[in-house]
Amino acid sequence: MLKKNEIAKFDDIIVYRGHFYVKGKLEQKKTQSTQLVEDENELPWDREERKANEMLEKEKSKKEKKKKDVGERIADRFFPLGGTSNSYAKAVAMNNRTKRIMSVASTEEKAKKMIETFRSVGVTVTEVVVTENGDESKLIVPGFHDSHTHVLSLALKREFEVDLSDVETKKEFVTRLKMKERSWAPFPQFSEEWIVASGYDDGKILREDGRLDLPYKGWIDDISNPVIAFRADMHTAIVNQGGFRKANVRWADVKKNTTHEYYRRFRDYIDFDTGEVKDDAMQLFQKVLPKRTKKERKNALKRALAPLSKLGITRVSDFGAIDALQAYDFELSRSDYMILRELDNEMRPHGLPLRVNCYLPFDDWQFAALEQERGNGAFFHYTGYKGNELRQKELNLDQTIRSNVRIAGVKLFLDGSLGANTAKFHEPYNSGFTKTSHTATGMFVRDVQHAKQIAILADKAELQIAVHAIGDAAVDAALDMLETIEKTNGKRDRRFRIEHIQHLSGDGSIENLNLKTETVEARIKRLKPIASVQPLHLALDSERALVEKLGRSRMERTHMYKSLSELTTIAFGSDVPIAPANPLEAILQASTKRTLNKEGQSMSVEMALEAQTIGGARASFNEDAFGGFFNGALMDFVVLKKKSSATSNSKEKEESREEERGEEEIIDDRSIVYETWVGGRKVYSTA
Predict the structure, then answer these.
(1) How far apart are CA 550 and CA 312, in angstroms?
(2) pTM summary value
(3) By percentage, how much of the chain surpasses pLDDT 70?
(4) Alpha helices of 147-293 — where are they, by DSSP H?
(5) H helices present in 248-292, as ranges
(6) Alpha-carbon distance 353 to 519, whole Å?
């Protein structure tokens, strides 16, 4: 029992009652404080049941406790810092000042004893019923971490761009753009204004006979305004004749004047006949497209946050606005980062309704390093921090949140996308979209050797590096980069990220830096990069397109989620607005519950849920404070509810599928986000 003069040092406690899912890696949390009990899963109210032969060990433990500092938290005195061996828990206790979990009770009886223990030492306990006892139609899971977003681009798209995501015919494509032109016609000041559209998928635009109808500039040349229409992946755009004039991009400069270094680099990225512009050449247009004011960007971002909370997203790893990235506009990227920080401060005391890990442009690594030196690489208050050392200090339960926005690292682009035929492969594309021999295998969008040199410097500054790599050659180049960094700067826990890691080479003949041949799977297992993948990209890469572009054998080496999860840490993201942000759908897509997934690469629902929660936390050095229900974690969670089946037939089908799988499905087609909580505070509810 604590002395009365010590009781006042502790904060009030909030105990959340409900049906919590805590199975999996979340239960393996260990810290130094577990040495205070013989069994890491032993709870304090079970100590009276110890056998007589354990009394000596108990007395020894008591003596050690007396020597501990009087300011130590009640969690360290009474509760082992571990999860529970059960699949489910009935109550979670949170320190109301730090918003950190102090204990997890696996049964109703233990929950009552936990509350009694707190109250017995004079601590104020408030109970919050999240789900009623016995109501198992609702399940509480850790907050979802979207490991790859462009949140501000989502905001700008919602506010300022023509949405082409659902067009399926040429008529629909053209009509949407002409409607925008007509709406501006009465206003002379808009006569030269850019019409910006995005989201079309050329694999879904069909003619009446069912054949693909690929968009090109001839469809929109009669629109008087300059027009740029971005494909869904943002690696390709169609520009009309007015757009080329407005941007002052001329055939004579790009195609004919090949002695001019600035223009020569773009000649393989622009097709003046079709109006198609790809990857690196986007900067010629992004530099002249209207940039929304800081106020417009800030207001758009603020309005885009609520829809993310509605999806159960409590944390994101954000890679910046696409318009700033494509224009190589570092000032704009920095401004967008500061907008996030300003919004977080303005929304205090709670801050943003989600937590943001920011990754700045690779070539701006010095600014990112400076921000980390200033302390902006941390969610928590700290002292003497540099680089990722904070992850060791985050085990201190007395730390409080200082900001919901942190600098996490930098991001590098190595190649383009499969949809744009610019993803870099070892072998040429099967389809004939790329016309010149040196681009038939796709493109590296920058000099790889030069990128390695910068990566070594960024890594020395203890920045986490994320590399965009889609094609198999780009993935191998990313692994080469990681190996070079390790060889130069030494081994450490750097958690080098490969974003997308979509296609793996399959011949086993890749030669590593030690001139030894090994498979790409063996390299991934040895080097342990973070595999940051996007299950909803499966819908963008149809089997028809994959076979047409890559052939059957290479298609089998795409989206290998199960294999990757067995080799290294895998984290799920959306790449919003490239693909929809929908964690529940991503979990189902990667599991056995969606026919789009590849046979043999399906994960269990539980594994997919881990990739969407603790996997994302670990990918950003956040696993000591986020991603599960364990002592020291912040109280970020999602309440899921299963809708009742519309018909008895659908219910029977669902039961039949569960019987075939032989497992209880914690998430299925009926699951919806019922509530979202961040820091123990409800930020979204369907009620």
Answers:
(1) 36
(2) 0.85
(3) 78
(4) 151-160, 170-184, 241-247, 251, 261-264, 282-286
(5) 251, 261-264, 282-286
(6) 43
